[in-house]
Design a protein that fits this description.
The protein is mostly helical and 330 residues long. The chain has a single domain, classed as NCX, central ion-binding region (A middle domain of Talin 1, Up-down Bundle). Helices cover 80% and strands 1% of the residues. It has helices at residues 2-30, 35-47, 49-60, 64-82, 99-117, 124-146, 152-155, 157-163, 173-205, 209-221, 223-234, 239-263, 270-293, 299-329; strands at residues 92-93, 296-297.
Length: 330
């Protein structure tokens, strides 16, 4: 039953998160906000709503391992899986405008986040530092975007299509209100189902809650990014995949962990400090050479990325599985 509840919770998160984004974007379009403003704020924050509500709910429910595991695991999955799988369809270009600068932002944010993790727990002021950096990034990105004639280079083609109504925005007042209400009500319910079922599954298997957060929950909340990059690969628009992943990872660290820590202190599990945050940093470093050369992530590196992710998932579970065998033997 807990597995069904977990699947239902993640599905509810993704569905209601999409409704919230569409309702908020439709409202912003009605208010005649510029596309760049909508893309850099409403779309960017809205698409990260599932990760945000899960992390907040987990931290408030006394499951900090799920909260921080969701963010760290999502960043690892975004690089090794979300960037790796689409290369089986078509190579991913690394020549977007400002991609080098955004890569440096992700690396810098990762280093700052790792440093703060060793000042355990993450408190309000740690969260405020992270969130302030997110605001600074958005302001700087807005200034860069205002100087360019191609907004899709900054906010992504998918975001621009959504803002332009191609993806089916509600037009009527009641439709907008309905989407907003469904999103605002459904997201907390989905988070509650996801966190409670994930905690129960962790207890059943005798593993730390962070293990479920790093794997099942993180992968579930990364599904929109995976669907977007696979769709882009099929359509031959692979150049936008890397930018979407970098933006998602930056939001996960700065906005989601920043806001979560500002609401409630977040203790960092010891094994995440020992292993997983370094895997997250290694994932960011793995794509840095492709960005610096402005080359392509082809099928062979993509296969290596997927293989590394599978090995990481096995590694996360195996030590805990061995502990369970040893305990049961006694």
């Amino acid at each position: 039953m807990n597995y069904l509840l977990l699947v239902a919770g993640i599905a509810l998160l993704l569905f209601c998160g999409d409704l919230l984004v569409r309702g908020a974007v439709a409202l912003a379009v009605k208010l005649h906000l510029p596309a760049l403003v909508i893309g850099l704020t409403i779309v960017a924050f809205g698409t990260s709503a599932p990760e945000l509500v899960v992390s907040l709910r987990a931290a408030l429910a006394g499951s900090p391992g799920i909260a921080i595991g969701n963010v760290v695991g999502s960043n690892i999955a975004n690089v090794f899986l979300v960037l790796g799988l689409p290369t089986l369809i078509a190579a991913t270009n690394c020549d977007q405008p400002f991609i080098k600068r955004n890569m440096l932002y992700v690396l810098g944010a990762s280093v700052i986040f790792i440093t703060l993790c060793f000042l355990d727990p993450l408190t309000f002021w740690h969260g405020a530092i992270l969130f302030a950096l997110m605001i600074a990034f958005l302001v700087e990105s807005g200034r860069r975007a205002a100087r360019r004639p191609d907004p899709e280079a900054i906010i992504g083609e998918e975001a621009l299509e959504l803002i332009d109504g191609v993806s089916g925005l509600p037009n009527q007042r009641f439709g907008i209100i309905g989407c907003l209400a469904a999103g605002l009500i459904g997201l907390p319910l989905g988070a509650q189902l996801t966190v409670s079922s994930a905690a129960a599954i962790a207890q059943t298997f005798g593993v730390e809650e962070a293990v479920i957060g790093l794997t099942v929950v993180a992968l579930g909340t990364s599904l929109p990014e995976l669907a977007t990059t696979l769709s882009a690969a099929y359509r031959g628009h692979c150049g936008l995949a890397l930018g979407n992943v970098l933006g998602s990872n930056l939001f996960n660290i700065l906005a989601i962990m920043g806001l979560t820590a500002m609401v409630v202190p977040v203790p960092v599990p010891e094994f995440i400090k020992q292993v997983d945050i370094w895997v997250m940093l290694a994932a960011a470093l793995a794509i840095t050479p492709f960005v610096l050369r402005r080359g392509q992530i082809t099928r062979l590196p993509g296969l290596a990325f997927v293989a590394v992710y599978i090995a990481y998932i096995i590694f996360v579970f195996m030590p805990r599985a061995n502990d369970m065998v040893s305990l049961s033997a006694h």
